[in-house]
Amino acid sequence: MQELFRPRDLSEALAILAARSEVRPAAGCTDLFPATAAPALQGAHIDLTALEELSGISRTPEGFRVGAATTWREAIEADLPPAFEMLKEAAREVGSPQIQNAGTIGGNLCNASPAADGVPCLLALDAQVELASAEGRRMLPLGKFITGPRQTALGPGELLVAVHVPGEAARGASRFLKLGARRYLVISIAMVAVRLVVEEGRVASAAVAVGACSPVARRLEAVEAALVGAEATPALAARVRAADVAAALSPIDDVRADAGYRLEAAAVLVRRAVSELVTHAGECAA
Amino acid sequence: MAQVSMTVNGKPVTGEVEGRTLLVDFLRNGLGLTGTHVGCDTSQCGACVVHVDGRAVKSCTMLALEAEGAEVKTIEGMANPDGSLSVIQQAFQDHHGLQCGFCTPGMVMSAAALLAENPKPTEAEIRHYLDGNLCRCTGYHNIVKAILAASGQDVSIAAE
């Protein structure tokens, strides 16, 4: 008999996981079901969508807290500063509207697909993840949480409960661009998230992340360094050097694209995102 | 087995389900509401779209127990109280927005969700919104026309 737990209270959920480490979390099921090779889910699961503490986006004294069971649709509808626009753009491209209504941001992170659309956006927002277990809580930078394809730093009995974005990273304007074999309902070949803070006509800070081009989505520090301090004019995009993009990434050849094409696409998308942001430079102001 | 209760098309219902029972299977096998179809079973095709608390979701990708306490609406709840077709259903008939009809329940439910959120969508917005509903008779063109008509807009603006 397959078991399903649906706790209303986080401490109850953590107690179940502490006692039964084989119980798999479910938070929207949009990845879980398609990955189930059997006619029905096997084993015990715990549905996290009834947990109040995991739902919705709120402001905190330090910045923003995104509950792990926040759906893509809730992210699209949330009142957030322009720095989050890339996350909303990614949310609008996840699956279809019905998937956006069910799939969750925490599920996207824990599923840890190299092509997870939420990851580059949250990396470019300097996100930290809040993990909870019956033993207590800890925070980790998102870049240290996802450790490989389908692998995370979650320990036994531990749940991702929220994603935190510091106020300092909630500045500037942002853009998400994704390349797929078709426009919709598609797994990314490459996607980029770019956030720029422009002060007095110059780039004060830059966050550039690329997904689907390495085992885990990555920030591109060399590309960021080449942008900081430069004038926010249409010439800015030319500062994105293909060599800097390629040096940070390690794409694979697969049915969707070969590695060379992915690198080319990543560089083009980063330049395009930078260019679109400086064209609307007023929005990049801190 | 666990007990699940929800409101389906305005009526309170209760049933016994296993943890793994999908919402679509509860609707079809538990309640006999077979208007909601299962096409791909992998949340791609959209034949199983229903509304849960006003949101369009794929009922093959949701457990029945996740809908505990929710308001669910299926294609069987779309007609007017007197049994006549709703505006959207009538528009699908008038504009031949179906061929084999298998995808139609999902198309109608997605169209209703779209028009609830965007009462006068452009043709492009309609096509974008239907990205999660597949029609393998390639009947999209008339489906788009039907939705334009249901929103009270001129269907001649749809590209031929």
Automatic annotation (TrEMBL), chain A:
Q: Which SMART domains match?
A: CO_deh_flav_C
Q: Which UniProt keywords apply?
A: FAD, Flavoprotein, Oxidoreductase
Whether Oxidoreductase counts among this entry's keywords is yes
Tell me the Pfam families matching this sequence: CO_deh_flav_C, FAD_binding_5
Q: Which domain of life is it from?
A: Bacteria
- Mention one GO molecular function: FAD binding
Q: Which InterPro entries match?
A: CO_DH_flav_C, CO_DH_flav_C_dom_sf, Diverse_Substr_Oxidored, FAD-bd_PCMH, FAD-bd_PCMH-like_sf, FAD-bd_PCMH_sub1, FAD-bd_PCMH_sub2, Mopterin_DH_FAD-bd
Which positions fall inside the FAD-binding PCMH-type domain?
A: 1-170
**Name of this chain's protein:** CO or xanthine dehydrogenase, FAD-binding subunit
Can you name the source organism?
Meinhardsimonia xiamenensis
From TrEMBL, chain B:
Q: Which UniProt keywords apply?
A: 2Fe-2S, Iron, Iron-sulfur, Metal-binding, Oxidoreductase
Annotated ranges, domain 2Fe-2S ferredoxin-type: 2-78
What is the annotated signal peptide range for this record?
none
In terms of Pfam families, this protein maps to: Fer2, Fer2_2
Q: Which GO terms describe its molecular function?
A: 2 iron, 2 sulfur cluster binding; metal ion binding; oxidoreductase activity
SUPFAM superfamilies membership: 2Fe-2S ferredoxin-like (SSF54292), CO dehydrogenase ISP C-domain like (SSF47741)
Write the protein's name. Answer: Carbon-monoxide dehydrogenase small subunit
